[in-house]
Amino acid sequence: MFKRILVPVDGSERSLKAARLAVELAKTHGAEILLLHAELPTEPAFIDVVHLDDQVRAALAQASRAATDQILSIAAAVAKEQAVPATMHSAVTTQPDVLINQVADEQDCDLIVIATHGRGALGRLLMGSVTLRVLQASTVPVLVVRTQS
Questions:
Q1: pLDDT (tens digit, 9 = 90+) per residue, 58-96?
Q2: Are β-strands 4-8 and 111-116 bridged in parallel, bridged antiparallel, or unpaired?
Q3: Distance CA 148, CA 54 (A)
Q4: Which residues neighbour 115 within 8 Å (Cβ) at sequence distance 6 or greater?
């Protein structure tokens, strides 16, 4: 039924729980996992006001890349433990929901398994919900893994 399952991961225990469930599904269906991390830009939005020298920019980019690599490696280990094929992908974006849906379409994923942070109505209003925006725009089925706060 499933051939390629997209799993967005952010390094939280919630996203690892979703990854574990996705790996179980992949193993059952003989599918592969595509792990995705949406990396936030390292340059502040107010970059025109504050001057950052090249060394600071390079250090920020290197730290962000290292964090991304670690997040993806931890999630990949979950798949490896179950002998499920997994590939890793990341991109810098300020709109993770758009990236998730774009990658799902471009990589021919037939399921997205994503965690929700379980915020209440006020939290969603103030902070928004990547998961909700993925659900609203996705062209493939989305399995939302709800976890406790």
A1: 888 899 899 999 999 999 999 999 999 999 999 999 899
A2: parallel
A3: 42
A4: 12, 14, 15, 17, 18, 131, 144, 145, 146, 147
> Residues near 17 by Cβ (< 8 Å), separated by ≥ 6?
115, 145, 147
Q: Residue 64, exposed/middle/buried by CB under 10 A (0-12, 13-18, 19+)?
A: middle
| SS3 of 93-117 | CCCHHHHHHHHHHHCCCCEEEEEEC
pLDDT digits (tens, 9 = 90+) for 106-139: 999 999 999 987 555 544 454 458 888 999 999 9
Q: pTM of the full predicted structure?
A: 0.87
